[in-house]
């Protein structure tokens, strides 16, 4: 998996930053996390393939997290999309899209599979053979959820060269699933004929939220945690008042959750230079990185 | 007046162009014409003063003309606006804004004076002591109007040095209004004691529309005409099919209307180089200019 930052800013627009959006590339398909104004232009700039987006996940209905969505949905249509799109977000999102399509007499040539989040719950909102997507309860000024994207465990890899040439095909499936197999009187012990797959990855995206160490339990041992850090610790009172977090607080969650790496972003427009965020977070959690538009992190 | 281009593109997003938006600066206040996605970032980039915007005019509800509006309205609020805003646009615009404010639990600290356009009509939708704004009927795939912004005639300028020192104050007003005045037996002929004011300016904005020479009558002798030209003449069949115009057609309207200058824009994403638009238009109407983002035309 690859995680690419498309927007690093928060609510107040400045020329140097675009509002929230990030892309999780799963290989042959991808997940867009939030979609602030101008996300489609960021996607063009950083050469994100529009057709690969299969899921769009919106955390909450503050404009800097979704005002670019309707434009992107239109562009997906105009560029010939017919594949269904899974769109997960808060109650109200479907109305907002519907009213705009209706007045512009637009009809999408693809279906949207809407899933409405339950803001207080840590619950699975999507699952297929490859991934599971769950909401993470966040505490913000309006209903808001983060998202945990978990790969499903892959099948074991068969060491085919160790098997006889006439080994029956159905037994391959059993070996892949971790079972031992008996064939012509011989026991093929799974561990000898297969290799363990790469361990499934977990990526968590938490924006926007007041500091809540409880988040650590939901993102426990994630391979990558994106957590907002709108302010540095000098402004922790303001962070609390506006239901946002500081870099130190984001790092505390990363540390408590024992994640592999922490990405911080959603910087307040008052900070021209973001190096203080990094210094502050790394004092608590060393493996922290700053969001930079267009930057990709390998998971 | 000054007319600044903020977006030159059409529906398909490309990195080199932003969607439709233009600013008409009236001196101490300004009018935003259309507001495609990212307009607020274009305003930041080209140092447009947000607080001066008093009017926003939306031509129609295709996304490339209004998807940036809700974000701008939010930003105006977040930057402390309390002054009312005049918002003129098609039926539906108020619903679209309302539903988004409602779900984000946002309340604007300024009032919006909504005026709904009547797409088939050439009629005044706003008037005060300085300007008048009228709709121009355009023919597009959905209800659409252009706008004609006309300055009100200013008062005549008094040549005070020609008048006696004790000349009564009420007579000044009469002279300014163009009347002759009799004072102590003497006739003060208006023409001798006043100068004509600068002639009132007219600016017309026409996007999007199929070619319609009837537009010329509405924009007759305008000081500046912005007219869309999505295609060059080789694609006139496509222009007609999609209810858009070519550069040649835009120029024909400028010529028939005897406008002072023509600005063409709303270029299809298929044209990387727009010089062919200019060549084509200037064959019909010499005083044509290409839209360029950030470029200002004096009226």
From TrEMBL, chains A, B:
Organism lineage: Bacteria, Pseudomonadati, Bacteroidota, Cytophagia, Cytophagales
CC cofactor: Zn(2+)
Active site: 64 (proton acceptor)
Sorted UniProt keywords: Endonuclease, Hydrolase, Metal-binding, Nuclease, tRNA processing, Zinc
Provenance organism: Leadbetterella byssophila (strain DSM 17132 / JCM 16389 / KACC 11308 / NBRC 106382 / 4M15)
InterPro entries registered for this protein in UniProt: RibonucZ/Hydroxyglut_hydro, RNase_Z/BN
Catalysis: reaction(s): Endonucleolytic cleavage of RNA, removing extra 3' nucleotides from tRNA precursor, generating 3' termini of tRNAs. A 3'-hydroxy group is left at the tRNA terminus and a 5'-phosphoryl group is left at the trailer molecule
The protein's assembly and partners: Homodimer.
First-level EC class: hydrolase
Binding site for Zn(2+) 1: 60, 62, 140, 208
Similarity annotation: Belongs to the RNase Z family.
Signal sequence annotation: none
Function: Zinc phosphodiesterase, which displays some tRNA 3'-processing endonuclease activity. Probably involved in tRNA maturation, by removing a 3'-trailer from precursor tRNA.
Gene Ontology MF term list: 3'-tRNA processing endoribonuclease activity; zinc ion binding
Gene3D superfamilies: Ribonuclease Z/Hydroxyacylglutathione hydrolase-like
Name assigned to this protein: Ribonuclease Z
